[in-house]
């Protein structure tokens, strides 16, 4: 049976004045949307900021110093936990602040830890890495500015460890290949 009359409980609060009902509803809907948008944006920012500063982040790499391992424009996932708990090891690709310009992040391979032997260079005649320092080198030694030029880097400048390339998809995969590093000829 069809009935054209609706019960009073379903009718809007302002059923007698259609213009008022529409205006009140649209103001309420706009306010509700704005409140949800601002709350969602703030939550997204807080969660993203917490993850970025404590767990890891996405990094876009540029420059030829880590070629062929990392190429210009690669998008890489980097993590911070191994830096905080001190579990980085020789062979890891790390991001550290440039010792001469703390606004620039350098991506290099960690080649020696404190007290490890290194070959002296003309700029830095050390034969061991000092305490609290690490030795970094780019995979493309011909164009890389690294510890051979500015010496061992204070461990406190380490920021991230690069672990996984996600872009481009054709080259996606893990980055810290310890087997490759441990079996290549080392000429530090």
From TrEMBL:
Organism annotation: Pristionchus fissidentatus
Keywords: Hydrolase, Membrane, Mitochondrion, Mitochondrion inner membrane
Localization, UniProt: Mitochondrion inner membrane
Similarity comment: Belongs to the peptidase S26 family. IMP1 subfamily.
Protein's recorded name: Peptidase S26 domain-containing protein
Residue numbers annotated as active site: 65, 108
GO MF entries: serine-type endopeptidase activity
Chief site of localization: mitochondrion
Entry superkingdom: Eukaryota
Subunit structure of this chain's protein: Heterodimer of 2 subunits, IMMPL1 and IMMPL2.
A single Gene Ontology CC term: mitochondrial inner membrane peptidase complex
Domain Peptidase S26: 50-119, 127-167
Key word Mitochondrion present: yes
GO biological process, one term: protein processing involved in protein targeting to mitochondrion
Presence of keyword Hydrolase: yes
PANTHER family in the record: MITOCHONDRIAL INNER MEMBRANE PROTEASE SUBUNIT 1 (PTHR12383:SF16), PROTEASE FAMILY S26 MITOCHONDRIAL INNER MEMBRANE PROTEASE-RELATED (PTHR12383)
InterPro entries cross-referenced by the UniProt entry: LexA/Signal_pep-like_sf, Mito_IMP1_subunit, Pept_S26A_signal_pept_1, Peptidase_S26
